[in-house]
Amino acid sequence: MRKLLSLAIVLLLGVSQIFAQTHLVKGRILDGDGKPVEGATVQVKKGTAATAADAQGNFKIEAKPGDVLVFSAVNFATKEVKLGKETDLAVTLTRQSSQLDEVVVTAMGIKRSRNALPYAAQEVGGDEVSKTRNSNFVDGLSGKVAGLQITQPTALGASTNVVLRGIKSISQSNQALFVVDGVPFDNTSTASGGQRNGTGGYDYGSNAADLNPDDIESISVLKGAAASALYGSRAANGVILITTKKAKRGLGVTVNAGVNVGSYDKSTFVKYQHQYGANYGSGPEINGAYPYGYGSPDGNFLYAPLPQFGQNTPQLIVPTTEDASYGAKFDPNLLVYQWDAFANYPGNPNYGKATPWVAAKNDPSTFFVNPVSYNTSVFIDGGGENGTFKLGYLRTSDNGILPNSNITKNMLNFGATHNLSKDLTVGGTINYSEITGLGRYGTGYDANNVMTNFRQWWEMNVDIKQQKQAYFNSGGKNITWNMTDPVNGNTNPIYWDNVYFVRYQNYENDSRQRVFGNAYINYTPSKSITLLGRVSMDTYNSLQEERDAIGTVNVPFYSRNNIFYKEMNYDFLATYNKDLSKNFNFKALVGANLRQDTYSSIFASTNGGLNLPNFYALSNSVNPINAPTEALLEKEVGGVFAGATLTYKDMLTLDGTVRRDQSSTLPAGNNAYTYPAISGSWAFYKMLDNAPWISFGKVRVNYAEVGNDAPYHSILNTYNINTPFAGNAMVTLPSTNNNPNLKPERTKSFETGLEMSFLKNRVGFDFTYFTSKTFDLITQVNASGATGYLSQYVNFGSIQNNGIELSLNGTPIKTRNFSWDINVNWSKINNKVLSLFNNQQNQVLASYQGGVSVNATVGQPFGTIQGNDFVYTNGQRTVGSDGYYLMDTKTTDIIGNATPKWTGGINNSFHYKSFTLSFLIDMRHGGNVFSLDTYYGLADGIYAETAGLNDLGNPSRNSLANGGGIILKGVTADGKANTTRVDNSGQGYGLYGYVYNPARAFVYDASFVKLRELNISYSLPAKTIERMKPIKGIDIAIVGRNLWIISKNVPYADPEDGLGAGNAQGYQSGSYPAVRNIGFNVKFKF
Amino acid sequence: MKKIILYSIVSVFALASCQKNMTNLNIDTKHPSTAPSYALFSNAQKNLVDYITTPNVNSNIFTLIAQYWTEATYTDESNYNLGNRNIPQNFWNNLYVGALNNFQQAKLLIPNDVSDPAVVKNELEMADIMEVYTYYYLVNTFGNIPYSQANNINKYPFPAYDDAKTVYYDMLNRLDTCISGLNPSAGSFGSADLLYGGDVNSWIKFANSLKLKMAMLIADSDPTTAQKKVNEAINGGVFQSNADNAVFQYTGITPNANPVWVNLVQSNRKDYVVTKTILNPMVALNDPRRSAYYTNQYSGGDIGGTVGVTNTWNNYSNPYFNPITGTIIDPAAPSILLDYAEVSFLQAEAVERNFIAGTAETFYNNGVTASIEEWGGSATDAATYLAQPSVAYATAPAGLGAGAIGSTGTSTTTTHWKQAIGLQQYIAYYMRGFDAWTSIRRLYYPAMAVPGSPKSPFPWRYTYPANEATANGPSYQAAKTAMGGDAVTIKLWWMQ
Q1: Residue A22 confidence class, pLDDT cut points 50, 70, 90
Q2: Helices (H), B218-286
Q3: What is the mean pLDDT of chain A?
Q4: CB–CB contacts below 8 A, A to B
Q5: Between A286 and B468, whose confidence is greater?
Q6: Model confidence over A527-573: pLDDT tens digits?
Q7: Which of A554, A725, A786 is the closest to B96 by Cβ?
Q8: DSSP A235
Q9: Are A557 and A547 in contact (CB under 8 A)?
């Protein structure tokens, strides 16, 4: 930190040389309310001198009498003042609606006025995503842009799904492209193993999170193809255009320091029953005995003498192998040898003893910790006549709700510009980020995902605190409740480890060092021509290390994955801007881009176990390690593009662009593709002088085509080399058949919109209708295994998206001291798969445990969830003669769809003097999610509803003879209401779970309404600040994220959670509870 | 200054022009585009053996269907739940993709790789025998299957299904061609043949033994052809001792360790117990193979689990820790593809059916003895065992006692020789669940127990993979119609 400050001082001294001038004019810029307008720019018209106002609105500028000073600021009308002899000015700027005259950054960084913008683009201010101090700014976009669907998993650092205007491609990425200052910024999310398929592994998060949120000036979301076509094939899914802060003249230092505390959201976690303990059930009673039980008279316990504890007669022993809670009813008078009776660790009072059979005092919810996270940032910017600089540093340290989890980010960014001459500027930025992760959460159905235990397989007699004690008091041994055969001395885990052992011993760690930057030359040979040459680089090295310690239930291992990524972009851009006449303005651009991508990785793992404990290196492998897996993926895309815009009276705009790309991933001869876009807009309000209540009005319409190239190595077939067998080479064909005849995937889209505001911009709306059709989809389609391949690459089919986007904004109340702003974003996307390969009706995207798959199905929105369903009679669930539900045996019934019907956000902000209160309600309606958690967990009897009362008011788990059992809701085959009561005492899995219900029973409506963000901030009044020199401003804020799920229909889980980013959504397994974050942040400006 | 800038801009522009051979970037330099045929053959052999050997609950549950084992806690598959884990699809894909496609590719490459035409011929025949061996599993698991259009994706992206019977006869014909085409005086794969080290004579015996097995499968449906083929096979030379067995010897080091060890021991899981279905008769017969087949948890003795209900793992005999032979749990345990014991039992049956001359009892005794010796027993053990009236061919299985075998899951035969041979064949097929299942479906002995909560009656076949309905829809629909449905209860064409 100190180094950073001294660096800043050095830079400051350098810069201050530039200020050494005479003829100083100073002044103060205020708004209509007499408040300073910080950051307002002051320029000498037709000159080079310029500066910006400080936090008190003060400025100093070099000028001479007769110069015209131009004062401008975002949200204010520009004002010109002709300088007389005065040297002290007081300037008042008039506030304008945020809508009007707002400059929008569009493709290639070109700024346009709202009047001349012929396509949908929505701006989000940088502070909107940085104010909640979320270390992944992408999450901060949720609910703020119509048509943008952000899906955030609940696990610490997990990847965020970012989809604009719906799914367009079946097996290619649908993630929006991130562009930072004109340069693509990689947002690949990496995951290990079968993470996306729910079979374990880690989600290493989205790479877009490597950007410093405090450096973001604004985010412009280009939703449709017409807006993004200039970016070429990668922009097919829309562009999130990020403009980083531009340094202002003068010196500014901003320091943020924040701390926040997380806590798990109880509504997203299991509600347990606390009445019954370990077992899958005693089996049926036959003549007063339980022959299929575990040996004890009631069938629920093991029943054996324990001579090691001096017991020579049979004792009641917990069936430790049975990871379920359909066992004996808790009864404090019953003394049972539980797992702790067999665990001889220091401080265990229960060793060798039978203890009362009671529910655990500490159920799994006590496992979660309340993490405290920190963030600190410093941002310094400054500049003079000949150049500007900015320097930012951000450190965040995020801890998770699981013990031993942390993600730390250090980001350093520097940018500078220098004017070599009046018409020549060079500049560049460099960003360095280092992300280190420790103990990311295990995911999916895996022993390293503790939620698999807590949500699916657990004994309610097991006390978490005691497991903790066992782990720590034993010096880190894997003393688990799930012992293999404790009676005979085998206390090793059979299926599940001690959860503390999992977190502290089987952890992963990772790091990513990334450098992202560019250097450019900007040359303005004449007033109307600008030439830009730019080279940019985005590169990172990443290391992901995973391990399972000796003593764990799985084969111990250590693995490492080294990843190197580099993307180079070489750009040339020439723009021309000229007023052809008083009324006509003509803009044109031509450009070329060359992009070169390299991805290489090498993955190696130990083989057959580890030799030395607590030592993690490949050399510690029991058997010689198998050859590491190498990948080298290279790609080059060359593009040329051109565009022209003609504007009439800043009212009528006609815009056309065309781009041609040539990609190395497509076969020669078929690898070039051209896409045109044409757009027009009419700012008709300019003609409505007689309707003063209309402050703004514009219609726009556009059409565009974009293309997409093929994935790496999808053209030619190659072989896989496998581990040799006794010295013999082993080679197989791959399971995917590549295709040398692939051609580009194409999207055609049309968009039209109407934007209006009224009553001096107090109310406004922006409405867009769009339709797009993607065809010739490059897809890895499922093949019949009988072809010799599981899949093949083909071009086929089409998907249609159409929808509406609506943004409303208003200022219902506005007085001198108080104002209330409201902003609503809403979008509804109708997505439909029109056709698939060769009349196939269905394409499986992912198959999951539970006999469930996520699919593209013809005639349905993308993402059908398939599995088996109930059998229905007259629309009601049919119950068989035995009283149980009849189940379809087909696993291809459509039982849900992952795609939401609409999404929206409502943002309210209230300003009272120096106080601001704002909150964001984020909503999603429709879409389904399948839960493997309830699928198993309900069968195992850990959830409260499995031990409720039945219609007779008796415990449903009583035997039928004792008035227990349940009458399942449904009808018999003849259509009459079911009256047969069936057993729920757990004669081999309970009534509620997967054994007696089809997959359909575990599909839930994933709608939600969330209080996503809540901010209360207070800026110290200017008067107070003036006495605190050199401090120019202090803002204090309380920020909250994910505070309250106001409404949801998924029981015990966050409906938004899933297996990370990707096309297959709608499946939960071992889901983590949502985390509420409340933070405190102080921002100092110097 | 301006010049420098202009040059810079020009050079940036120059860089932005594409490389001439940009498509070369798309060549995968970490995966070869050519491969030697023998390496494909070796790997296909290994894949095939892995798939038929593994007891992995996701892909091969024949040890559960044949009721050698039942699941301790998670009983879905023991109750014939095939759908939850997509078992038919995984088994199908393994054989077609992992085995057949690579055998097929080896056959395509052999003529280019090998210069000696006699060696080419031998190698092609061996690859073809492996294909026939693989199809034997597919056609007898599903019924009608893609065959003539299989493994040719560029020509047949949607392979049609062929009639199971037609496929089967074609396989028999192919086997004849292979046998006559093998030339013992020429070489072959050498050590790349992981079964016989390239020994052509062994392959002739293997092919004839397979032919015998395939012929006996149709003994009921087409006795004429069966008899002809059985005699041809025996005259051509079938296995004469355990030394001839088709054995795949694992190295013991992952990924070349026996999958049984991987799934039972390395995994640390305790998922299976031995069932009453096999344990009770073995106990009743004082079978010397018991100590090799399973371990008893307590001194309490041999306790078999009940099929399809939860069986607390530590209360039952289980296949995990074998203190005597260690066979099943050895990472380097061999896997048997075809053995002398079954060849003997099949010949005993051929005698009973009057296909061949000889004494059924001799073949029966040879089969029992071979099996016991294969599992680590001695000739004396076998003689003692066979001396018991309950085992001796003439009197077996009369001494077994009522109820010793599981109850009425499958219909049972009352023919004495079917019972005698059927039971011993069943015991001898331990760990070869598919062959046991096929034997049960052919001889209807021993009877299988009805599991605790069955999803279906005893499966006579597998349903088709779920993926076929969507990825190969019209072909699948046609096959379904031809088969009379897609249920597990549909009997295959050769079943009585």
Answers
A1: very low
A2: 223-236, 259-261, 276-284
A3: 89
A4: 300
A5: B468
A6: 899 999 999 999 999 999 999 999 999 999 999 999 999 999 999 99
A7: A786
A8: G
A9: yes
Token pair in block for residue B93: 């894909």
Whether B9 and A722 lie within 8 Å, measured CB to CB: no
Q: Can you tell me the mean pLDDT for A282-300?
A: 85
| Residue in the block written with tokens 């795609």 | A899
Chain B nearest C-alpha distance from A551 (Å): 10
Name the token pair of B58: 């996701």
Q: How far is CA A382 from CA A51, A516, A1082, in A?
A: 10, 22, 22
3-state secondary structure at position A689: coil
Mode of pairing for the β-strands spanning A928-931 and A1067-1068: parallel
Distance CA A210, CA A515 (A): 10
Contact A635 B26 (CB under 8 A): yes
**Which of B84, B453, B471 is facing A840, going by the closest CB pair?**
B471
Facing B151 at nearest CB: one of A667, A722, A788 = A788
Which residue of chain A is at minimal alpha-carbon distance from B39?
A730
Whole-angstrom distance, CA of residue A477 vs CA of residue A504: 10
pTM: 0.89
Q: Report the C-alpha gap between A1060 and B102 in whole angstroms.
A: 35
Whole-number percent of chain A with pLDDT over 90: 65
**Beta strands A183-185 and A177-180, pairing class:** antiparallel
Chain A CB contacts of B192 below 8 Å:
728-729
Between A319, A635, A782, which is nearest B471 by CB?
A782
Per-residue pLDDT of B148-172, as tens digits, reads 999 999 999 999 999 999 999 999 9
In this structure, are residues A315 and A337 in contact, taking their beta carbons and an 8 Å threshold?
Answer: yes
Write the class of the CATH domain B34-256+332-483.
mainly alpha
Tokens coding A864? 């059908």
Nearest to B122 by CA among B191, B186, B51, B193: B186
Interface test with B, best of A197, A487, A605, A787 (most B CBs within 10 A): A787
Answer yes or no: is the ipTM higher than 0.90: yes
Question: For residues B154 and B105, what is the distance between their CA atoms, to the nearest angstrom?
Answer: 13
More confident site: A520 or A106: A520
Summarised one tens digit per residue, pLDDT across range A966-990 is: 999 999 999 999 999 999 987 767 8
For chain B, the domains span: 34-256+332-483
Q: Show the tokens assigned to A278.
A: 């370990």
- Structure tokens given for A345: 């660790």
